[in-house]
Amino acid sequence: MKRLFIIAIAFVLVSCNQSKQPDNQTKAAKLRQVKTQRDTIETVALGILKALKIKDYKSFASHFHPVDGVRFSPYGFIDQTHKHVLAKDFLEAIDKNWTLTWGHFDNSGMAIKMKVKPYLEKFIYDADYLNADEKSYDEFIGRGNTINNLKESYPQLHFTEYYFKGTDEKYKGLDWKSLRFVFKKQGDAYYIVAVIHDQWTV
Question: Which of 1, 5, 155, 194 is the most buried (most CB within 10 A)?
């Protein structure tokens, strides 16, 4: 009788252990998926930064979302009036040297009217973000006096941030700057749908 009892207990323990295994396997699979997703997005972002650094704008445009295009925001607050373009229009604007309206200067409210390359140099790759002081995934680093509405504008989408701390002593570290990319999946690949430049407006 005692032996039967021991066998029964052992059977129950084995059954419980087996029932937990699928849950553990599911959790492990989800963790792998999240890690793979992050690695993929960060790899794409790295390619974008490399293209911007060497001013290979054709390569940069190849990362634009093929359906949604890209919105360019010169400051942390994303406005629907900020320039929104598809890759082909972006490249055509460069080729034809068009002046575009990108938004408004934060301190004066005047329209930002610039050709593409000067805009990219002033409001996108205005620092060596490929070698940024800090970088993050789905987390904000730079926090300034402009409302940051990225998560409201692009709910459930992933983003990366590249940040440089302030260097001018008279501003006591407030002259920081950041560059953010927002990603959306299309098919099996991730593309950018927003490029956001942020800084403390001094």
Answer: 194
Domain range list for the chain:
31-199
3-state secondary structure 156-176: CCEEEEEEECCCCHHHCCCCC
Q: Outline where DSSP puts E strands in the chain.
A: 70-73, 84-85, 99-104, 111-115, 134-137, 158-164, 177-186, 189-199
Residue 189: CB atoms within 10 Å: 12
Q: Which CATH architecture has domain 31-199?
A: Roll (3.10)
Looking only at the bridges linking them, the beta strands covering 70-73 and 189-199 are: parallel
Element (H or E) spanning 31, and its range?
helix 2-53
The model carries a pTM of 0.82
